[in-house]
């Protein structure tokens, strides 16, 4: 076993990882990267098919971002935002406001998606306290939601496997159904259901709106739930219902923001302007930890007063508004403009869609979901009667392992094979990666046919 692998296994505790299994198996150590490929210590190259956990946009070692960080290092790496401002943080806030949906005018920084969600929840809560509506203390979240791993974010989460154990620690939101037609929790027919999943929100609010501070949602795609995608019109509909009942609408675009869905922000697809917008992951192009919670003048103004009013938002972190991270984020936004990244996505999305059609026809692919360059391929033991594989078969993991043997790094969520390539992937590279996915699924599910029958 090589030295780093040994050290890692002896000293490191990995996130979301059963360490007993990790330690028992050979593991790859990444030493370098070039473009959309990662290179291990043995010199093997792999396509970064999940954009290093959905963060990388323009590829690795992107010269303009590298240079922006080096330039900022020549000035100042970090200084607190308590009692001080800094140049990249102020400039980035202006630029984020410029590109955000209408009405969002203020930026509160934090360090990752989870903490930016905490900020949104605490702001929403405190807002109502200061608006003379102290009864509005609860949140509504979607079943199977994932908003991060800090305690507030876990409270509004709904993924049993991750969140169940922490229940005694958490506050309890009201849940509304996951808006996924393939996995409809209401067993409704999409052709005739008139989006009962959205109507549920109206039912809850009609009775309880005086107790509800806000609704938090991952717009268009519930990512960690397995790339579950809401039907067209759902987002706009729940936005409208939230406004009608005077609750705050929190859009968690940690996963969907910065071009992933084909537009800068997922909310734009349905003309939705949230009260709070949560951003992270792609904000620095995948370079540095940074997050931002954007909000409106109306919310910001509710916190104004002198110290005796006790309206200050008492929240912040040591690295809030870190200048290096903000410099990387500014370089990221410049690349979007200069390289016309959004304009260049259409052919990539179209090629992906065409390849996915073929993958959808495989015997053991139950559903293929795509929103821009967010892709979930759901494996099914029997696709016609929607019979899943057993947990022990770990089919999603096996397919991803097979893809790795063919030079593509992807991750499963259960039996959903997740493909989230960097936006910079060329049409050719996308075709190659999808070809690997197709053959990996075939190879693994054919073995399954041999072993278990189809
Ligand atoms: N919200 C959403 C929608 C996410 O997908 C994630 C992470 N996958 C988070 C929040 C948490 O972000 P982080 O892991 O950076 O804390």
UniProtKB/TrEMBL annotation:
<keyword id="KW-0949">S-adenosyl-L-methionine</keyword>
<dbReference type="GO" id="GO:0004015">
    <property type="term" value="F:adenosylmethionine-8-amino-7-oxononanoate transaminase activity"/>
</dbReference>
<comment type="similarity">
    <text>Belongs to the class-III pyridoxal-phosphate-dependent aminotransferase family. BioA subfamily.</text>
</comment>
<keyword id="KW-0963">Cytoplasm</keyword>
<comment type="subunit">
    <text>Homodimer.</text>
</comment>
<dbReference type="InterPro" id="IPR005815">
    <property type="entry name" value="BioA"/>
</dbReference>
<keyword id="KW-0808">Transferase</keyword>
<dbReference type="InterPro" id="IPR015421">
    <property type="entry name" value="PyrdxlP-dep_Trfase_major"/>
</dbReference>
<dbReference type="Pfam" id="PF00202">
    <property type="entry name" value="Aminotran_3"/>
</dbReference>
<dbReference type="GO" id="GO:0030170">
    <property type="term" value="F:pyridoxal phosphate binding"/>
</dbReference>
<dbReference type="GO" id="GO:0005737">
    <property type="term" value="C:cytoplasm"/>
</dbReference>
<feature type="binding site">
    <location>
        <begin position="113"/>
        <end position="114"/>
    </location>
    <ligand>
        <name>pyridoxal 5'-phosphate</name>
    </ligand>
</feature>
<comment type="pathway">
    <text>Cofactor biosynthesis; biotin biosynthesis; 7,8-diaminononanoate from 8-amino-7-oxononanoate (SAM route): step 1/1.</text>
</comment>
<dbReference type="InterPro" id="IPR015422">
    <property type="entry name" value="PyrdxlP-dep_Trfase_small"/>
</dbReference>
<keyword id="KW-0663">Pyridoxal phosphate</keyword>
<feature type="site" description="Participates in the substrate recognition with KAPA and in a stacking interaction with the adenine ring of SAM">
    <location>
        <position position="16"/>
    </location>
</feature>
<feature type="binding site">
    <location>
        <position position="281"/>
    </location>
    <ligand>
        <name>substrate</name>
    </ligand>
</feature>
<dbReference type="InterPro" id="IPR049704">
    <property type="entry name" value="Aminotrans_3_PPA_site"/>
</dbReference>
<feature type="modified residue" description="N6-(pyridoxal phosphate)lysine">
    <location>
        <position position="281"/>
    </location>
</feature>
<dbReference type="InterPro" id="IPR015424">
    <property type="entry name" value="PyrdxlP-dep_Trfase"/>
</dbReference>
<protein>
    <recommendedName>
        <fullName>Adenosylmethionine-8-amino-7-oxononanoate aminotransferase</fullName>
        <ecNumber>2.6.1.62</ecNumber>
    </recommendedName>
</protein>
<feature type="binding site">
    <location>
        <position position="316"/>
    </location>
    <ligand>
        <name>substrate</name>
    </ligand>
</feature>
<feature type="binding site">
    <location>
        <position position="411"/>
    </location>
    <ligand>
        <name>substrate</name>
    </ligand>
</feature>
<dbReference type="GO" id="GO:0009102">
    <property type="term" value="P:biotin biosynthetic process"/>
</dbReference>
<feature type="binding site">
    <location>
        <position position="252"/>
    </location>
    <ligand>
        <name>pyridoxal 5'-phosphate</name>
    </ligand>
</feature>
<dbReference type="InterPro" id="IPR005814">
    <property type="entry name" value="Aminotrans_3"/>
</dbReference>
<keyword id="KW-0032">Aminotransferase</keyword>
<feature type="binding site">
    <location>
        <position position="146"/>
    </location>
    <ligand>
        <name>substrate</name>
    </ligand>
</feature>
<keyword id="KW-0093">Biotin biosynthesis</keyword>
<feature type="binding site">
    <location>
        <begin position="317"/>
        <end position="318"/>
    </location>
    <ligand>
        <name>pyridoxal 5'-phosphate</name>
    </ligand>
</feature>
<comment type="function">
    <text>Catalyzes the transfer of the alpha-amino group from S-adenosyl-L-methionine (SAM) to 7-keto-8-aminopelargonic acid (KAPA) to form 7,8-diaminopelargonic acid (DAPA). It is the only aminotransferase known to utilize SAM as an amino donor.</text>
</comment>
């Amino acid at each position: 076993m090589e030295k780093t692998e040994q050290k890692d296994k002896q000293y490191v505790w990995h996130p979301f990882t059963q360490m007993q299994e990790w330690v028992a198996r050979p593991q790859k150590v990444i030493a370098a990267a070039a473009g959309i490929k990662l290179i291990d210590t043995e010199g093997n190259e792999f396509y970064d098919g999940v954009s290093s956990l959905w963060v990388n946009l323009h590829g690795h070692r992107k010269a303009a971002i590298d240079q922006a960080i080096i330039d900022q290092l020549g000035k100042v790496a970090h200084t607190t935002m308590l009692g001080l401002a800094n140049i990249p943080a102020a400039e980035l806030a202006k630029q984020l406001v410029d590109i955000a949906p209408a009405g969002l005018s203020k930026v509160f920084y934090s360090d990752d998606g989870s903490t930016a969600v905490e900020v949104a929840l605490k702001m929403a809560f405190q807002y109502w306290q200061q608006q003379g509506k102290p009864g509005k203390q609860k949140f509504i979240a979607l079943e199977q939601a994932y908003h991060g791993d800090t305690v507030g974010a876990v409270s509004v989460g709904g993924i049993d496997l991750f969140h169940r154990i922490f229940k005694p620690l958490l506050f309890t939101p009201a849940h509304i159904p996951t808006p996924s037609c393939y996995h409809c929790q209401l067993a409704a027919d999409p052709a005739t259901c008139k989006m009962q999943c959205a109507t549920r929100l109206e039912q809850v609010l009609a009775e309880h709106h005086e107790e509800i501070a806000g609704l938090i949602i991952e717009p268009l795609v519930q990512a960690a739930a397995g790339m579950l995608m809401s039907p067209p019109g759902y987002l706009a509909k729940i936005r409208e219902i939230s406004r009608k009942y005077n609750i705050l609408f929190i859009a968690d675009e940690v996963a969907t923001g910065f071009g992933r869905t084909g537009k800068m922000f997922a909310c734009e697809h349905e003309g939705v302007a949230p009260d709070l917008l949560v951003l992270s992951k792609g904000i620095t192009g995948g370079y540095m930890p940074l997050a931002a919670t954007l909000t409106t003048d109306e919310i910001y103004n509710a916190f104004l007063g002198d110290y005796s009013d006790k309206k200050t938002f008492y929240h912040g972190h040591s690295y809030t508004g870190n200048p290096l991270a903000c410099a990387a984020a500014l370089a990221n936004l410049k690349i979007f403009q200069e390289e016309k990244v959004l304009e260049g996505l259409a052919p990539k999305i179209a090629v992906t869609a065409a390849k996915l059609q073929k993958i959808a026809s495989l015997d053991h692919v139950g559903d293929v979901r795509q929103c821009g360059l967010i892709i979930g391929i759901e494996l099914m033991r029997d696709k016609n009667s929607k019979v899943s594989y057993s947990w022990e078969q770990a089919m999603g993991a096996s397919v991803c392992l097979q893809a790795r043997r063919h030079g593509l790094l992807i991750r499963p969520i259960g039996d959903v094979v997740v493909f989230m390539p960097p936006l910079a992937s060329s049409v050719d590279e996308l075709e190659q990666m999808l070809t690997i996915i197709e053959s990996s699924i075939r190879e693994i599910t054919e073995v399954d046919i041999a072993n278990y029958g189809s």
